[in-house]
């Protein structure tokens, strides 16, 4: 499990890189923070990052890990860096922009809602939530609350958050990057579910039969 200082350093560093790329793409601090919607998104990013510091997320391989799935982490990092910079840049350059300020503010709402949905399961699962596809010591299934409806709420939150970011910058490129994100996420979901089936057998199969992966009734 990551200690709080290490988690704080990683979280703050990641946040600064992400926002820094967006500011660079938009053309500088003065230009970026002159727009209310972008200022709100920046503040929301800061708040969510501070909250994340108090979670128990870890990068432990635990008792059993699917190491073949580690490529997903690298893929998500690359997509994330592109998502940080390109929507802001294409918005400033008026390249493949989608709409006006109403879409920006819809993006702000989706960004915040997705960020909350992304981080909430981290607190629900505690030490069982890992950046790796792994079974942690004392691992048990959580099948109540949001997990009683969908099996991967944090991944749904990630997608909603990314789509909100793209809308905030009116970016068709950002929407495309969000769609591309689905590919490694589905690969990770399949890997997780295979590992959980191996660990919990019929108990996980029964749980899987009653829930959806990401969107109730659809997937």
From TrEMBL:
Gene3D superfamilies: 1.20.120.1630. It is found in: Membrane. It is a multi-pass membrane protein. Its main location: membrane. GO terms for molecular function: protein C-terminal S-isoprenylcysteine carboxyl O-methyltransferase activity. The chain crosses the membrane at residues 7-32, 38-59, 71-90, 102-120, 132-150, 162-187. Keywords: Membrane, Transmembrane, Transmembrane helix. One of its GO terms (cellular component) is membrane. This is Putative transmembrane protein. It comes from Caballeronia sordidicola (Burkholderia sordidicola).
